[in-house]
Amino acid sequence: MKRHLISAADLSRDDAVLILDTAEELARLADRPIKKLPTLRGRTVVNLFFEDSTRTRISFEAAAKRLSADVINFSAKGSSVSKGESLKDTALTLEAMGADAVVIRHHASGAPHRLATSGWINGAVVNAGDGTHEHPTQALLDAFTMRRRLASGASGAGQDLAGRRITIVGDVLHSRVARSNVHLLSTLGAEVTLVAPPTLVPFGVESWPCEVSYDLDAVVGKTDAVMMLRVQRERMNAAFFPTEREYARRYGLDGDRMARMPEHAIVMHPGPMNRGMEITAEVADSDRCTAVEQVANGVSIRMAVLYLLLGGNESAVAAARTEESK
Amino acid sequence: MTMSDTHKTLLRGAKVLGGEPRDVLIEGERIAGVGTGLDADGATVIDAAGQILLPGLVDLHTHLREPGREDSETVLTGTRAAAIGGFTAVHAMANTFPVADTAGVVEQVWRLGKESGYCDVQPVGAVTVGLEGKKLAELGAMRDSAAGVRVFSDDGKCVDDAVIMRRALEYVKAFDGVIAQHAQEPRLTEGAQMNEGIVSAELGLGGWPAVAEESIIARDVLLAAHVGSRVHICHLSTAGSVEIVRWAKSKGWNVTAEVTPHHLLLTDELVRSYDPVFKVNPPLRTEADVMALREALADGTIDCVATDHAPHPHEDKDCEWGAAAMGMVGLETALSVVQHTMVDTGLLDWTGVADRMSVRPSAIGRLTGHGRPIAAGEPANLTLLDSAYRGVVNPAGFASRSRNTPYEGRELPGRVAYTFLRGRATVVDGKLV
């Protein structure tokens, strides 16, 4: 593992499988009466959120707390950031407070990279979503969910996603989730197809390790997982598509389309969902939709990432057991 | 001004435009003679053996930031940087605070230039009031002012309204003016952060597509042809733009274009660092664009090199990419980059460099005292280059008030040893006088 987690593209196959396996071990904790390990006792994790994202922040917060880290939540709203304090000054402040890891969500693509390489701080940097660049822990939790649902054998420990066909549908252009997933899933051996109206496919996509299709119906029949991306209604006003209804008809997942998916195939959504837009209520509430499972898996993945970045070399749970028995 | 007007300087053995060694005698403000074995006769003698003598360089595109942003540059610090870079004249862009859209502001900049004494400062006037693209500024008043403005530009912003652009092109015909267009279709570049392409797709940064530049250039060469005026294209950056300018010139239309040193060397791959020192407008493009620009500068499709020297205070670059200002300083490294990309590659000889960095920009700006031959009787605006020098760029030593260079730590060839402004040395042995 590297010292920071900025981009899913930085992860080798072995790194990625290690994170998934570690998360699998840590997930077992959730079944225990006391869901807490002493592993990161005395370490400080700062959640530095320049964008509203309650879901991601509480997921990181739960992960850090289950590892017994001290958690400081720094939200840009109501803080000095809204008064014009620079990212640099904020970083220097956190450094002075002794942050061991900074989990950053920022509206500017590259802000976590800048934080990690600028020399402003010494701690580990975890990208919790930057602009339209990446959201690597989301991709990891998605891969974790797929492996659990699709892999042969119990939970798929040690395995990758070789040969699995994954379809990602929606606003790829503005999606950090899609970028991270394309990198990670291809590293794990999956075959990724992006489906979107041409207006929402990035110029330059031809260099990505994936296929691109404009036709959802042509793809759903031969896929192991369909990941629906959130589509903001405002995109309509920038002429990315004519109307919500036309978008929903051509690129939304409804019961009919889901019925044409292979029987074992799952429906994923990073949330929050726009019911009636990219996904109908029927699909969202079906057993095949893993949206809620993804949230639970997110905590395990973020525990694994914090554990590995903050110095865990041994098996996570084994290390915890050793400490518990002291 | 320690030297009197009759002071004599003899450059011994300089390679005039890279040719055979010649002695060049400067007397007062003019070149008194060019030959071999000239008599020193009381002159200060400078051993110029092996060094390249060029006409003083002329920049069509400099941001001196004064008035308004004296924290990043002033006319004095900017012209000092220009002298270090071998320039004897710069065109000061109009996007100051207040905007140089009246005779008053251009005269202020012109007067500050006179006082600085390091190089001639020719103010550029705004095309429209406040650079807002809505209403023509008083172009005639700026032309008739002491500053004698001939080049008009809303640089930083595009004159995107086709009617305003047409009227401006027509209007300046009355006094042989030229409109220098910052070609950037605004709707196609909303939220643009870097070149739109493979790298922007990966980095998730808003794309600045080549077509946003090319579509405006195509429109403007057609407009210039239609109204019989002349248009100058600022900082041309794409292979497609080169094709359009080449086509317009083949029609005999009065179109000129400039390229920046950074677009001759750097590509959008550098943006992968997310280091805002590489953030510039127009953005760094691809390797194919860089090669097309070099070729076009070599064959004359692109008339000149212009620095787009754009100083910014440290804090405006010491931040995340999205929050950073666009622009790079360039005066002090321009000639080195041109030597590296054009001369050392065999694309251009030193006569060509003199043409693209002095003769043609002077002609476009209608400067009479610059871009002249190196011959007896001509104004002694001269740059002596030690082309054998190799050095690593260290912004700490810059004369500019700002340090936002994309070349920090990079080895570049060439160093300006002497710059003469009308016979008076502004740079001696690589240092400001």
Automatic annotation (TrEMBL), chain A:
InterPro entries: Asp/Orn_carbamoyltranf_P-bd, Asp/Orn_carbamoylTrfase, Asp/Orn_carbamoylTrfase_sf, Asp_carbamoyltransf, Asp_carbamoyltransf_Asp/Orn-bd. Residues 3-147 form the Aspartate/ornithine carbamoyltransferase carbamoyl-P binding domain. Residues 163-309 form the Aspartate/ornithine carbamoyltransferase Asp/Orn-binding domain. Keywords: Pyrimidine biosynthesis, Transferase. It is an enzyme of class 2 (transferase). One of its GO terms (molecular function) is aspartate carbamoyltransferase activity. Its EC number is 2.1.3.2. L-aspartate binds at K83, R176, R230. Coiled coil: none annotated. It catalyses: carbamoyl phosphate + L-aspartate = N-carbamoyl-L-aspartate + phosphate + H(+). Pathway: Pyrimidine metabolism; UMP biosynthesis via de novo pathway; (S)-dihydroorotate from bicarbonate: step 2/3. Carbamoyl phosphate binds at R55, T56, R105, H135, Q138, G271, P272. The keyword Protease does not apply. Catalyzes the condensation of carbamoyl phosphate and aspartate to form carbamoyl aspartate and inorganic phosphate, the committed step in the de novo pyrimidine nucleotide biosynthesis pathway. Heterododecamer (2C3:3R2) of six catalytic PyrB chains organized as two trimers (C3), and six regulatory PyrI chains organized as three dimers (R2). HAMAP family: Asp_carb_tr (MF_00001). Belongs to the aspartate/ornithine carbamoyltransferase superfamily. ATCase family. This is Aspartate carbamoyltransferase. It comes from Streptomyces endocoffeicus.
